[in-house]
Amino acid sequence: MPFLPAKASTLRLEPAVQAGLNQLSKALRRPKNRLINDAVKLYVRRRSLEVEQELETTLKALRACRRKEPDFEASIEAFVKAEAELAGEDPAEGRRLSPDSPVQSEIQRRLHA
Fold this sequence. Notes:
Blueprint: H1 15-28, H2 32-68, H3 72-86, H4 102-111
């Protein structure tokens, strides 16, 4: 990999972090810039691994869901097709029907309370 020059960045460190960094720099006789680079490099590696693991877990869950319903996409496509074909024939299309039961009336009352 070719050498790329470091790019300057502005950081705003909390006073306690700045004080700790100063002490560590003196004790280790290493520049603060180097310590910051080392720390950020370790953080990026660790967090990248954590994020990768979280994404893999999510992907496994999605795949498991899809395996439970292998025709999920086909079912959605059939629903959309039926809606499109029968839209003009649906008596309830675009209209609110009055509730037929006390349960439906209560649901409507609570939704609009």
